[in-house]
Task: structure prediction
Amino acid sequence: MKYYLNNPLSNNGISQNIPGVDVIDATKLDYPEFFAELKEDDEVVLIGGDGTINYLINHVDVSGIKNNIYIYGNGTGNDFLNDINEKPGKEIQLNPYLTNLPTAWVNGKAYKYINNMSFGIDGYCCEEADRIKAKKPNKKINYTAIAIKGLLFDFKPRHAWIEVDGKEYEFDNVWLAPAMKGRYCGGGMMLAPGQDRMGDHLTVIVYSCPSKLKSLKNFPRIFEGTHVELTDMTKVITGNKIHVRFSRPCAVQIDGETILNVTEYSAEL
Result:
């Protein structure tokens, strides 16, 4: 039997109807109990986006699941689907991508993630998007506009201390410092164009510059992945054990889920 689990919070709350399919509200399930009761040949389809996958991997031990799991894309960002060169609206098997997942530690709590653990203006964008959704739940979120507003006015770059596999780095005027499992984050930003999600390391991208105008001018290059050519602004570091500390708190986002008032995080693959 194939079970369809719908995340009613994905795609700004706009539900996805699949003809002839009965869906289960994923937010009301006890995931460990649900998967434990599946028969060997049962299959599961998640209807949602990056946050839906993130919910799954943080609510059940996916390494112990033998059933086929699929994602039917219905999110706002779909960074995971972008990364594997797929489009929303069809069932894509998830099982090959649910192994060797990184773990992030934030404020003493551990989180698995499928795409990115992002610190900086990307977290700010998610924080602002959450505020907009709280006031206008059905409003379409323009993350690019939020990022531009943050770059020009609201977000202040931080001083950052970064350690990767025991090697220490220090940067001033840091706008972004994510630990990437995939290439994309933030709904289409190719932050780590050289990252292979099936590889054996994570990629830290440090985007830093003292000039707001220069940072804004080059920000669109992130969507194409060409920002890494700007070696005076972008540092690419790969490794397995990562620790990032900022001089002042800001929001972080893990696969699009926001955590406020964070000064440091760790990630490990």
